[in-house]
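Regression test case RT-17, inverse folding.

Input:
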């Protein structure tokens, strides 16, 4: 069942709760597109186009657009419009095979050297989608940037500084691979249905690992471990990492020169990378050890 037509004469789909759908009103969609600032040479990947409020103006302004939509009815409706320069990929962006996504983008824009991302993300999967984008860049997909809609509280955590209340795993791990900028704040009334929270548009400008780290998986594990005990002292918080012993944790902190009585929430990304490298070297045996260290 569908709602009455919108101002453009198109039927307005009913948002589905199971997909976390909140559709942008046209006036706010125009503001978001202005913040994205599409250029004629841009090739876009859009995540969750919904009824196409961003899709149409982006496609009009850019070289090409590949839209990934999980809702088969919305995907079919957009496909039926036969929008110029738009390719619809039906499926869950989080589960879409890398090769399928890469090939769709290459077919849509074979001469593109990089791709831009846009999306009004469902709040309940926004963080996994950001981490998937980071993983895609690691796998070699040349993503230049991503302009995405988030719940304002998530954006605050993404942009937070060490020692602040909102400082989080997101700020560390996403910030390690992307520079983050707040572009636009939106009220609940910018969507249909109106959510109970405010929203923020942010831009992720992707770059190489900054600072470089020996093993990004260790960095992610260490960050998750210490932030699970963010208000404990570091010498205690590090014990949450994979059964790390107190003696090994002490050696890690001694090697990095980080005060063991500091709290994890005060550590900068640079310091967390130093911790990860020290654990990689000491606990995972990437350098000669003066004595055996138990691998737990």
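Golden output:
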């Amino acid at each position: 069942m569908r709602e009455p037509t919108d101002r453009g004469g198109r039927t307005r789909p009913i948002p589905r709760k199971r997909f976390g759908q909140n559709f942008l009103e046209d006036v706010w969609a125009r503001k978001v597109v202005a913040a994205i600032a599409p250029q004629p040479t841009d090739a876009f990947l859009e995540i969750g186009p919904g009824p196409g409020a961003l899709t149409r103006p982006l496609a009009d302004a850019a070289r090409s657009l590949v839209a990934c939509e999980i809702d088969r009815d919305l995907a079919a409706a957009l496909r039926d419009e036969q929008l110029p320069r738009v390719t619809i990929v039906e499926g869950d962006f989080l589960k879409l095979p890398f090769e399928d996504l890469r090939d769709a983008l290459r077919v849509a824009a074979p001469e593109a050297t990089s791709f831009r991302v846009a999306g009004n993300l469902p709040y309940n999967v926004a963080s996994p989608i950001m981490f998937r984008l980071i993983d895609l860049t690691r796998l070699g997909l040349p993503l230049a940037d991503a302009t995405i809609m988030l719940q304002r509280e998530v954006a605050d955590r993404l942009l937070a500084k060490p020692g602040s209340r909102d400082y989080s795993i997101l700020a560390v791990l996403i910030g390690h691979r992307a520079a983050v900028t707040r572009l636009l704040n939106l009220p609940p009334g910018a969507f249909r249905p109106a959510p109970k929270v405010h929203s923020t548009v942010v831009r992720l400008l992707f770059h190489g690992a900054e600072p470089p780290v020996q093993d990004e998986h260790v960095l992610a594990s260490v960050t998750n471990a210490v932030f699970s005990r963010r208000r404990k002292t570091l010498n205690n918080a590090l014990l949450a990492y994979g059964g790390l012993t107190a003696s090994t944790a002490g050696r890690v902190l001694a090697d990095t020169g980080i005060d063991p009585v500091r709290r994890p929430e005060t550590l900068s990304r640079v310091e967390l990378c130093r911790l990860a490298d020290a654990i990689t070297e000491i606990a995972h045996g990437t350098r000669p050890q003066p004595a055996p260290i138990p691998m737990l």
